Amino acid sequence: MTNEFEVTPYRVSGEIDYDVLIERFGTKRIDEAMLKRLSRYGPLHPMLRRGLVYSQRDLDWLLNEYDKGNKFSLYTGRGPSGPVHLGHLIPWAFSRYLQDTFKVKMWFQLTDDEKFMFYDHLTLDETKKWGYENALDFIALGFDPELTKIFLDTEYIKTMYPLAVRAAKKITFSTIRAVFGFDNSYNIGSIFFTSIQTVPCFLESVEQGKKIPCLIPCGIDQDPHFRITRDIAEGLGYYKPALIHSKLMPSLAGPEKMSTSGNREMAIFTIDDKKTVKRKTSNAFTGGRVSVEEQRKLGGQPEVCSVHAYFNYFFESDDAKIREMYDECRAGKILCGECKERLFEKVWNFLEVHQKKRLEAKKVLDDFFVRD
Ligand code: TYM
What we know:
By secondary structure, the protein is an alpha/beta fold. It has 2 domains: 6-248, 3-Layer(aba) Sandwich (Rossmann fold), CATH 3.40.50.620; 259-359, Tyrosyl-Transfer RNA Synthetase. 49% of the residues lie in helices and 12% in strands. The strands form 3 sheets. The protein has a 7-stranded mixed β-sheet. The chain has a two-stranded antiparallel sheet with strand order 1-2. A two-stranded antiparallel ribbon has the order 10-11. The longest helix has 27 residues, at 336-362.
């Protein structure tokens, strides 16, 4: 595999080598010892068992504090630039598992300001509207309203601003350039923005009036923001946030990450209807051969197949079943059409229920949202 890939919060390109990324970012692999430790708090989530949630920072420290009785808060977020796709659900479903397992508070940030500043085609009203839409998906995953706070940056800025300016004063433009790859053409809001994404790491501490550890479950593309946060946290009087990173679910076109701004035919959105899901899954890239005969003879290539990846990431929780599907594909016993049909069924069964829960969530939005 080549080294030619890039992962920042603003650009993911090439075929990601996740082992190399651990070295580049300086994070720690979630190893056997960590899995064993985590299994003491409850059954391991399939994403942990399968190495999809695979990297961390300071997780040992965080669990040591928890064991001493110092509960942490969770923090994650969404940049509301359009509808939520299945990839976004990866860190959020995992966050839900963490909240259930540790019974801890969750802060969920909707960065309407960020997406407005980074995208020419979006107005601030639109990013705000998407923020409220995207919050429905988050709530639909079953977060505890007693323990979960959701906010839009532009509606919570009075609370956040004092912390944001204290953070901003400690971050230089040259750090921003080096970490995010920005040049002089970027607007100054984009340059400032990371200080806003830093703030929620400390909101629980502010609320409780004492230092509270924070754990951020997120896709590994967001890590660069928090490297900066970790460098300045202690200088601001708080703990460095701990992180737990997931890999990025590929698009239906193959190995590149699913994204809202990429080819919309190759991402499945949570608001897609049945016909759309059927069309998208039918057109998915697989590891199939040129003809049925070849496939029966040579077997398929599940390791490059996006359909297989979808089962593995989200749509098949039974490890034995996943292995069986992999082996059957390899042996040429099942063909791509069957797998696509099976995936369609799984995705649609999930989305049909999820879409009902999204509608239900509209009634309880105010139980979750905090505003200035
Ligand atoms: P955003 O909206 O790009 O992504 C939201 C979350 O989804 C993850 N993600 C994915 N995970 C798996 N597979 C994919 N294909 C995929 N695409 C996106 C992202 O890593 C992220 O965890 N600036 C942030 C919003 C934010 C945030 C945070 C995210 C604010 N505070 C704290 C994480 C933690 C953003 O635009 O995320």
